[in-house]
Specification:
This protein has about 250 residues and is an alpha/beta fold. The chain has 2 domains: about 5-140, 5'-nuclease (Rossmann fold, 3-Layer(aba) Sandwich); about 170-245, LOTUS domain-like (Nucleotidyltransferase, domain 5). Helices cover about 35% and strands about 20% of the residues. It has helices at about 20-30, 45, 50-55, 75-85, 105-110, 125-130, 160-165, 175-190, 195-205, 220-225; strands at about 5-10, 35-40, 60-65, 95, 115-120, 135-140, 195, 230-235, 240-245. Helix 5 links the parallel strand 4 and strand 5.
């Protein structure tokens, strides 16, 4: 048996931007092991703008037909499935991706029963929903690329840039950006500003089940981290290692 937290990720597809999911899936691996991933919406929502996201992120689509105009059956289905997962002991932590304040009561009921509730939503999310959760994670859209100025010289061809080999510490070794992002996220939540090597490795495998240091040309995670100039390793008392962001060079 394991005491690992079991996490359910539930998407309110009718009232959420698909771009929010990538932000949510960087957060939930810190909470525990994701055991339920479902997206709720009507046919128009799931078959169009959400299909690619649900497939790529391995979510189970939960199609709900609207039996009458103005009735959102998806909200009811999401709420019932959340309570069922809690009562069946399949999940004890819930991450609901929504900006709809209608879910505030669901959040309160889940917490009354001992569950932990996280909300991932947009800036427009009402206080009623934010305050009904244990923690609210706001998603901010990335700024759009600037429009080209008429008469300005054209930028270099992206294809040529992509074709140029990127520098690496040694032949055949790669340094994926996700490793630095993971350390930034985990160390930022730590009072000491650092994360244990084992915790980092577990988190990386949760966001990418296929992650493996040897797949990037390294003998292990410790060997891989040493290749990053932006990371600093420390051997603590007892022999275990921690990692943090290296101080910025002046």
């Amino acid at each position: 048996m394991t005491n690992e937290t079991k996490v359910a990720v539930l998407l309110d597809c009718d009232n959420t931007n698909p771009a929010v999911v990538a932000h949510a899936m960087r957060i939930v691996p810190k909470l525990g092991r994701v055991v339920i991933k479902r997206g709720y919406g009507n046919h128009a929502t799931l078959a169009n703008k959400w299909q690619e996201t649900l497939v790529q992120q391995a979510f189970t689509p939960c199609l709900q037909y609207q039996y009458a105009a103005g009735k959102n059956t998806s909200d009811i289905a999401l709420a019932l499935d959340a309570l069922e997962a809690l009562f069946d002991h399949r999940a004890d932590c819930f991450c609901v991706v929504t900006s709809d304040s209608d879910f505030a009561y669901l959040c309160r009921k889940l917490r009354e029963r001992g569950a932990t509730v996280h909300i991932v939503g947009e800036a427009k999310t009402p206080l009623a929903l934010r305050n009904a959760s244990d923690q609210f994670h706001e998603w901010t859209p990335e700024p759009a690329a600037p429009e080209p100025v008429p008469g300005a010289p054209l930028a270099a061809d992206p294809a040529r840039k992509a074709a140029a080999p990127s520098p690496s510490p040694s032949q055949g070794k790669r340094r994926p950006k996700m490793v630095v992002e993971a350390v930034t996220l985990l160390a930022g939540d730590s009072p000491e500003g650092k994360v244990h090597l084992g915790t980092l490795g577990q988190y990386l495998r949760r966001i990418d089940p296929g992650f493996s240091p040897d797949g990037h040309g390294y003998s292990g995670l410790l060997d891989m981290l040493r290749a990053y100039n932006r990371l600093a390793l420390t051997k603590e008392d007892g022999g275990h290692y921690t990692v943090k962001l290296a101080p910025a060079s002046v």
